[in-house]
Task: inverse folding
């Protein structure tokens, strides 16, 4: 499974499954969704905001949203950024790149990834067998 020091990235196409190998990689350039699954109180709100602002400063319209803004430290929270050249403000549905940093919501988060989408995660933390 490919991974880097900071995290791993998996595409269904790389899993070796015959069904997964037929899934094309995402080719959306001008309309895609990045979703961050975090634990509240981990500094994720600041990092998420910086991510959205960096894309906006490149001149690409973004629509960032807190999906479940938990006010209690340790509970799940999600932040979704829709990057779209047309400046759409609404959610599109589905996720092209999931940054899964919360083991409590791992299965739900992975289920939201579009076919051919990508998963980034912390490869230093153990993942139960069969969950990937």
Result:
């Amino acid at each position: 499974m490919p991974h880097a020091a900071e995290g791993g990235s998996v595409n269904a196409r790389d899993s070796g499954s015959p069904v997964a190998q037929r899934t094309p990689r995402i080719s959306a350039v001008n309309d895609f969704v990045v979703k961050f699954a975090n634990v509240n109180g981990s500094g994720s709100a600041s990092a998420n905001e910086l991510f959205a602002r960096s894309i906006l400063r490149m001149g690409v319209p973004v629509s960032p949203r807190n999906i479940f803004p938990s006010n209690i430290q340790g509970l799940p929270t999600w932040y979704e950024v829709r990057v779209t050249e047309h400046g759409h403000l609404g959610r599109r549905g589905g996720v092209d790149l999931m940054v899964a940093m919360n083991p409590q919501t791992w299965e739900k988060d992975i289920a939201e990834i579009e076919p051919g989408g990508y998963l980034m995660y912390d490869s230093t933390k153990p993942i139960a067998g069969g969950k990937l």
